[in-house]
Write a structure and sequence with these properties.
The chain has 167 residues and is an all-alpha fold. It starts with a helix and ends in a 16-residue tail after the last helix. The protein is built from ten helices and no strands.
Length: 167
């Protein structure tokens, strides 16, 4: 059997085995996107996530990949609860110095019951692996978020208990 045919059959077999072994890979893109949309809806109090919606207009492939893979496949996996996932995301983005993304996930964390004090602990904790400059920048972004949420005026129809959705 020629090598090209053997390699093609091997690749097909690998994809087939992966699809059977990992149920998320067997889902259609639409099913994966629906899972991702459900994740956003839950984390953002039923409000569409503006960053994702803006990306959908300008960069549809990136938005689809984010929704289907990052949210539909990874975020929907069993094994960690939403609270743990959000704390991990906040810590990771803070340690990387990516405060815009850290703030998005900090909002989600607050929406699902994580406290401001717990988020402050994340800023303190990252001084060890990422250093004081990253922790200071993260703490400044969190302080802005806390201030924004404290000043937000919400109607009962859009949010409760002054928990504002992610813009």
């Amino acid at each position: 059997m020629p090598d090209v045919i053997r390699l093609s059959l091997a690749a097909f077999g690998t994809v087939t085995v992966l699809a059977v072994a990992h149920p998320a890979l067997a889902d259609t893109v639409e099913e994966r996107r629906a899972k991702g949309a459900a994740v956003i809806s839950k984390l953002n109090n039923g409000i569409p996530q503006n960053n994702l919606e803006n990306m959908r207009r300008e960069f549809p492939f990136l938005a689809e990949a984010t929704e289907a893979y990052a949210l539909g496949d990874v975020w929907s996996r069993p094994g960690l609860d939403d609270r743990t996932r959000q704390l991990a995301a906040v810590a990771t983005f803070a340690a990387m110095g990516m405060t815009d993304l850290m703030t998005v996930h900090a909002r989600y964390a607050l929406n699902i019951g994580v406290t401001e004090d717990e988020l402050k602990e994340i800023a303190y904790m990252i001084t060890v692996p990422a250093g004081f400059p990253r922790a200071i920048v993260a703490s400044q972004a969190l302080a802005r978020l806390f201030d924004e949420r404290a000043q937000a005026t919400c109607s009962v129809a859009t949010c409760e208990s002054a928990i504002a959705p992610t813009p």
